[in-house]
Specification:
Elements (H helix, E strand, L loop, with lengths): L10 H34 L2 H17 L1 H10 L2 H25 L4 H29 L5 H29 L2 H20 L20 H13 L2 H22 L1 H8 L4 H25 L5 H21 L5 H29 L5 H30 L1 H20 L2 H4 L7 H8 L2
Helix pairs in contact: 1-2, 1-5, 1-6, 1-7, 2-5, 2-14, 3-5, 3-8, 3-14, 4-5, 4-7, 5-14, 6-11, 6-13, 8-17, 9-14, 9-15, 11-13, 12-13, 12-15, 14-15
């Protein structure tokens, strides 16, 4: 970053060196997640064990997210990412040793999942906030499109690759792959410069704000910015509506379309292919000049095909595949555009707190959505949630276009930075 707080003209080399390391680390993490879930499934056959594992992996994101974000904004983000990646690698190495020695217990896996999630709670917002400092604003949407493409590719190939590795390697071998990719990510961080935030010069005798004061400042920053608060609520509602739909996909295929595992696999593969195409499209196109408009239109384009899937007759599975493909394309358009909007708009000194607040709210809505969607689907049919959830998503996109504070979000509210710093 130069003296005007702008990313270097040579930002691509630095950023993509780190990005490749993080992408490989995410691949290793995806393989471990698949392998551990499959291990728990085959060893216990217990739904309680699986849901407990999911809950354990969620807790740090929900409960510690805002605190983690505050620490991210107070710390050297590069060092924090190195510490998080190293901690995750060490935790995974311990679990690999337990498997190798034949000592592993179910509670060991819970502890390691919790440890890995704790590291992720710090690493995710630190990397997202660092991206803003490294990438010029006009390229943030394209980088987000690239990220969404990577997530789509991981969703397509991590499960079959994990299944293949389970046939070729013992569990500790797969865990060792994750340790290796995490260390590779650490290496790229060690040898790549990441710009630091300019620190406010303190007056002699002035005390540095406490963690609690910084946490309150972040909360004030979000709640005092009407457009930003609405976006946070919308993101949480999207998670509330769409996560249960994904969880109910097997029942939709089995009970409504009268299909089996091949049809479910095909449906998920087509959706994943759409995600990859959508990420590439956003990466090449970059969206409309107003990023938030791209997100709102994408939200309509995501909700409508989901509702259509719930309305398609049981004998028209091919149409469901087509609608799923369109929904897959729109998902990265929405996620990438929203992410780029926040990266370009939110003050870099606040991004750790803002992104973790967003993640905490959205993640907390997942179990609530599942609790409501399950009984509703059992009573009214699984298609009902797809129709209602899809229509509500599309309606949010339409309403968002007519909310001035949302559509002018990218104009920013710089006066809030000063006010937030004064909150004690």
């Amino acid at each position: 970053m130069n003296e005007n707080n702008q990313p270097s003209v040579n930002w691509k080399v630095s950023f993509f060196t780190i990005w490749v390391g993080q992408a490989l680390s995410l691949l290793g993490s995806s393989l471990v997640q698949f392998a551990l879930i499959w291990y728990l499934t085959t060893e216990t056959g217990s739904a309680t064990v699986l849901t407990t594992a999911t809950l354990v992996a969620m807790l740090p994101q929900v409960l510690l997210g805002p605190i983690a974000g505050t620490i991210v904004d107070r710390s050297n983000r590069k060092r924090l990412m190195i510490a998080a990646d190293t901690g995750i690698a060490l935790a995974t190495l311990v679990l690999a040793a337990l498997f190798a020695l034949g000592w592993v217990q179910i509670w060991h896996i819970y502890v390691i999942l919790l440890s890995r999630s704790l590291g992720g709670a710090f690493h995710g917002p630190a990397f997202t906030a660092s991206t803003t400092l490294m990438v010029p604003k006009e390229h943030l949407t394209r980088v987000q499109g690239l990220n969404q493409t990577m997530y789509g590719i991981l969703s397509l190939f991590s499960a079959p690759l994990g299944a293949l590795l389970l046939l070729l390697l013992p569990m500790q071998g797969i865990l060792a792959i994750d340790v290796g990719t995490a260390l590779l990510a650490v290496t790229t961080l060690l040898f790549t410069a990441i710009p630091e935030l300019p620190r406010r010069i303190q007056v002699e005798g002035e005390k540095k704000p406490s963690l609690w004061q910084d946490l309150r400042a972040g909360y004030f920053y979000v709640t005092s910015w009407r457009g930003l608060m609405i976006i946070l609520i919308m993101a949480s509602l999207i998670n509330f509506l769409l996560t249960p739909a994904s969880a109910l996909s097997p029942l939709l295929i089995l009970n409504h379309f009268k299909g089996g595992a091949p049809e479910l696999g095909l449906f998920e593969a087509v959706f994943g292919g759409g995600v990859v195409i959508g990420g590439i499209l956003l990466g090449v196109w970059g969206g409309f000049k107003r990023r938030i408009l791209t997100a709102m239109i994408g939200l309509v384009g995501l909700g409508l095909p989901m509702a259509i899937i719930g309305l398609i007759p049981a004998d028209a599975f091919v149409l469901a595949l087509g609608a799923g493909f369109v929904a897959g394309i729109m998902q990265p358009i929405v996620n990438g555009s929203l992410g780029a909007t926040l990266q370009a708009t939110v003050d870099p000194a606040m991004q750790g707190r803002v992104f973790t607040l967003l993640t905490s709210f959205a993640t907390a809505m997942t179990p609530l959505g599942l609790l409501i969607a399950g009984p509703l689907a059992d009573t009214l049919g699984v298609q009902t949630w797809w129709v209602v959830g899809g229509l509500l998503c599309a309606l949010m996109g339409v309403i968002g276009v007519f909310i001035p504070s949302v559509m002018t979000l990218e104009a920013g509210r710089p006066e809030l930075v000063t006010k937030a710093a004064e909150v004690t």
